[in-house]
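Reproducibility note. Readers wishing to regenerate the assembly model reported in the main text can use the exact inputs given here. Chain order matters: entities are listed in the order in which they were concatenated for prediction.
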Amino acid sequence: MKYVPREIVDEVNVTPVHPLVNFGYLMGTVVAAAIAVYAGLGVAGAQLAARLGPNAENKVGDMIFDSVFSSMPLTTEGDDFEYLSDLAESLRSDALKKRPDLKLHILEEPAPNAMVSAGGYVYVTQGLLDDIETENELAFVLAHELGHYEHRDNLRSLGRSLVFLSLNGVVAASGVQLPSLLTGSMGLADLHYSRDQENRADVYALEIMQERYGHVDHALDFFRRLNEDELDFGVADRLLEWQSTHPLTESRIERLEELANQRGWSLEGEPTALPQE
Amino acid sequence: MTRSTARSTGITLTTLEGVPGKEIIEHYGLVQGSTIRAKHVGKDILAGFKNIVGGELKAYTELLQESRKEAVNRMLEQAEQLGANAVVNVRFATSSVAPGAAELFAYGTAVKVQ
Amino acid sequence: MIELITFLILVGVGYFIGNRREQKHYEDIKRREKQTLHIPIMSWGAKQDLPYAHEAEMFVGSVVVANDYFKTISASLRNLVGGRVTVYETLIDRGRREAMLRMKESAIEWGASQVLNVRFETANIAGQSQNGGTGAVEIMVYGTGIR
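Running the prediction on these inputs yields the following structure tokens for the assembly.
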């Protein structure tokens, strides 16, 4: 037997694909899948939110309260609180009366803000109570939050997180490790409302204003002042949070004034005073 | 350790079933040598850096060559005890027994050739 | 944000340096393969008649190769998608050929005319931690050189 030295020229053990092309393909596939999953979760979450019964909603609300808000400085007594909860109760629409009862809390925070969480938990900061000048302003802010509540906006954004958390639990239990890159990019604290949801809540609140006071004047004064503050002092830190979760106040006011004009709601009227303390 | 009879015992190692050109007169059964080595932290840290750019980890190559030499030497000690002058049909096996530790194992048949 | 930037830098450095070194290594491997082509390497020998020779000696060639950061990330993405992990093919291929060359070169130095009954051994020497630890593979080749 004779040995004939011959060279192997073709690289058969190496796939002839450029590493970057390969990387791009992989990245694209994974990102596309992640987007599909995220969108699917959104749909599933919205379905879940729309079907959640009052009991389940109460449970979710209590859970969130226990884990997030219960550790914050909250007040549920005093003249301010009595006035506030009477006002909020009087703003409740018939549809809202079928949902879990309102559970009002005053949050000892200097930044003016208000929020609603699942299960009828309404939070108003002390900063907001200090800043408002008429009942109309306060009623508009409260009605806006009640709008989110009635439209189930908070449940909707929570729905995705709920579905995602349960899915993540299943995936982790099966021993598959999602790369941290992937889980990190899927924010769980996705509690922002969309612009549409904000606009709907605004319209909802303005309707209630017209019903209650017979005009929509002064309802937006609070936001006007917020705007002026911004112009005077630049963007103050404490407003940033408010700003980030709400549409720009200027366009918001304009849109609402236009709506009032269209529907023939009066933009002139006497403000209702706050109770003397 | 490219030439594995590093320990000059005069014992010939082959991966064949005999020693070419020589006849086996006696055989003494299986001999084996094994060692378990852990990577050392400093080297591991350097290797961690190397993991960014890839390529050969020279420190590890040398470490494993050292360890394999030790496994072979242990096998040769067994062969010596048996009075063999060659170990034929030598095979190697490497396995990761614990995170960061590897077992290097060499085995073969101890024989006496002419 | 800082994490993302570090990540991108590591991937970039891994890709550019890793790729350059890989190309250089391949050039080197091909050059040396041509040089050592005259030595027959055979995976038989054990069950054949022993070739006539005066002397026999065992030779070992080994190398530990590590993956670069770019390859690690590509492979972890590939883990989600499935299929051929092309980035590791070149790594293992390089390692195997390098180990083979080291064995051949030491056999040539000794004066071998051929290397018989060659066996490969591949071992993962990486840490077994969840995040992969240091991804490295040892490849060794051994065989009997005769002269």
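We highlight two features of this model. Chain B is about 30% helix and 40% strand. Chains B and A do not touch (no CB pair under 8 Å).
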